[in-house]
Amino acid sequence: MGELQKILRVSIFLADTPIPKVFEKFGGYDEQISKLLQDTINSKKLKLSLIIKNYDVKNMEFPEEDDLSKMDGIIITGSASSAYDDIPWINRLADFTKLIIDKHQHIKLIGICFGHQIIARAAGGQIIKNPLGWEIGVTEVSLTDVGSNFFKIDNKVLRIQEMHQDHVKILPKGFCNLGFTSKSSIQGMIKGNQVLTVQGHPEFVGESTKIIINARLNKGIFTQEFAQTGLKAADYEDDHVIIGLKFIEFMMGYYHKSPYTRPGPLTFHQF
């Protein structure tokens, strides 16, 4: 008899739709994140099946109470919106995220870019527009001791596609910082074995990042010089496979006691 196929049930909270040229070529954030996870499963030859359900939170679509018992993880996507904005869907998302953190600890919560920031807001941190400006393209994140132990990277540098100006200024109580750059001091967070975030976009590829850079250059958001630097950086090698695997391990309960220790071989919940 072959090895039992494990199942990972993931809900993706869609906080936006990519710009048209990205959407046309790479799909929505759900498709890009699903590809990251599935490519990781394939490359690592994991005996694991994904069941993914999307919630369009920007249009006030949230799970019912009964749905929460069926989830292993929630991933909150990026967005062109700001996590500190006082608008109904963002306020509702922050409240719902706090509910998950406080009342549904069995659900692993992952945040990407805007998702990272909304989790920080929900947990009592502070998000602002970064006065030092944007970070775009593949960026080298210097890992803290916590981040280095979590990602298991010897040189303490994590390379990730970035596309943000807002950032987390104050870390929420009970969270650990995973890494930092010269522009942004909180590049990811972890809380026990329940919450994991990254400021960057591991689901982005070089081409999708370059489409966004060119669109913002054309709108006058980026200068020519800054855009050219970002376009070059978009093609640098990154660590999306490492991050994708950590997402999967985290949602499957790999980190049982703390973000600092490895409990042993990769294990999965049984359903």
From TrEMBL:
<dbReference type="GO" id="GO:0016740">
    <property type="term" value="F:transferase activity"/>
</dbReference>
<protein>
    <submittedName>
        <fullName>Class I glutamine amidotransferase-like protein</fullName>
    </submittedName>
</protein>
<dbReference type="Pfam" id="PF00117">
    <property type="entry name" value="GATase"/>
</dbReference>
<dbReference type="InterPro" id="IPR017926">
    <property type="entry name" value="GATASE"/>
</dbReference>
<keyword id="KW-0808">Transferase</keyword>
<dbReference type="GO" id="GO:0005829">
    <property type="term" value="C:cytosol"/>
</dbReference>
<dbReference type="InterPro" id="IPR044992">
    <property type="entry name" value="ChyE-like"/>
</dbReference>
<keyword id="KW-0315">Glutamine amidotransferase</keyword>
<dbReference type="GO" id="GO:0005634">
    <property type="term" value="C:nucleus"/>
</dbReference>
<feature type="domain" description="Glutamine amidotransferase">
    <location>
        <begin position="44"/>
        <end position="209"/>
    </location>
</feature>
<dbReference type="InterPro" id="IPR029062">
    <property type="entry name" value="Class_I_gatase-like"/>
</dbReference>
